C-alpha cells in the first residue's frame, strides 16, 4: 500500500498504532498447556462412551497439542459456545465437536483482531509517496490540457492518394474488397 506524505501518521499517531498492534498481538498469543481446562470442560460435557481416565487424559493432551497455536481466551469462548449451543460453526449437537470445528469457531472469534492487525500493518508499513512539486503539478496539468485539446479536434480524413495506395498496390499488393470499404464508410468511388 502507498500513502501520500501528507497523510503519514505523526509521531504520536504512529506510537498509538504501534501500541495497539502490540496489544492485539498479545491477545493472539498462543495458549499451549493453558487450554487443558477448556478442553476438559468440553470433553466432559459430551458422552465419553466408557472411556477411562487414561484415555480421556490422552485425548485432552492430543486436543491441547492441536489447539496450542490459538489464544486461550478464544478456545475457552469457543468451548463455551459449543457447550451452550451458540456456536456459529456447524456441528452435530448430539456429539462432541471435533478439533477442526473448535479451531474454526476460535478463528471466527479472532478474525476481527486479525483484520485490525492487517489494517494497522498496512498503515505502518505503507510506502510513502512524496508530494509532487509545483513544477510537476504544472506538467501534469499541461498534459491534461493537451490531451483534452487533441480529443476535441476532428479526426483527419484519409487523403485520396493514401486511400488509393492502400486499395491498389499498398500493403504488399493486397487489394481491399469494396464491401469491406463500404462497411468502413469509405465511398465506393474512392476504391
What percent of residues adopt helix (DSSP H or I)?
55-70%
In which order are the strands of the major sheet placed?
Answer: 1-2
Question: Strand fraction band?
Answer: under 5%
Count of helical regions: 9
Following the backbone from N to C, one meets helices and strands in this order, namely: EHHHHHEHHHH
Largest sheet, in brief, is: 2 strands, parallel
Dominant shape: elongated
Termini Cα gap: 55 Å
Poorly predicted runs: 169-174
Rounded mean pLDDT score: 82
Total count of strands = 2
Secondary structure category: mainly alpha
Radius of gyration: 35 Å
Written account of the structure:
This protein has a two-stranded parallel ribbon. By secondary structure, the protein is mainly α. The chain is 61% helix and 3% strand. The longest helix has 26 residues, at 99-124. The chain has nine helices and two strands; from the N terminus they run βαααααβαααα. The model is unreliable at 169-174 (pLDDT under 50).
Amino acid at each position: 500500500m502507498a500513502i501520500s506524505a501528507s497523510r503519514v501518521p505523526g509521531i504520536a499517531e504512529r506510537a498509538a498504532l504501534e501500541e495497539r498492534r502490540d496489544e492485539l498481538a498479545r491477545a493472539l498469543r498462543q495458549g499451549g498447556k493453558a487450554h487443558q481446562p477448556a478442553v476438559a470442560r468440553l470433553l466432559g460435557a459430551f458422552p465419553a462412551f466408557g472411556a477411562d481416565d487414561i484415555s480421556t487424559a490422552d485425548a485432552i493432551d492430543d486436543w491441547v497439542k492441536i489447539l496450542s497455536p490459538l489464544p486461550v481466551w478464544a478456545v475457552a469462548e469457543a468451548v463455551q459456545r459449543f457447550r451452550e449451543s451458540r456456536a456459529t460453526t456447524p456441528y452435530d449437537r448430539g456429539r462432541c465437536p471435533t478439533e477442526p470445528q473448535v479451531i474454526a469457531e476460535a478463528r471466527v472469534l479472532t478474525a476481527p483482531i486479525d483484520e485490525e492487525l492487517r489494517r494497522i500493518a498496512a498503515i505502518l508499513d505503507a510506502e510513502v509517496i512524496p508530494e509532487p512539486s509545483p513544477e510537476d503539478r504544472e506538467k501534469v496539468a499541461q498534459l491534461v490540457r493537451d490531451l483534452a485539446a487533441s480529443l476535441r479536434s476532428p479526426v483527419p480524413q484519409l487523403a485520396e492518394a493514401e486511400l488509393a495506395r492502400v486499395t491498389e498496390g499498398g500493403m504488399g499488393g493486397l487489394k481491399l474488397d469494396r464491401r469491406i470499404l463500404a462497411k468502413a464508410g469509405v465511398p465506393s468511388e474512392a476504391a
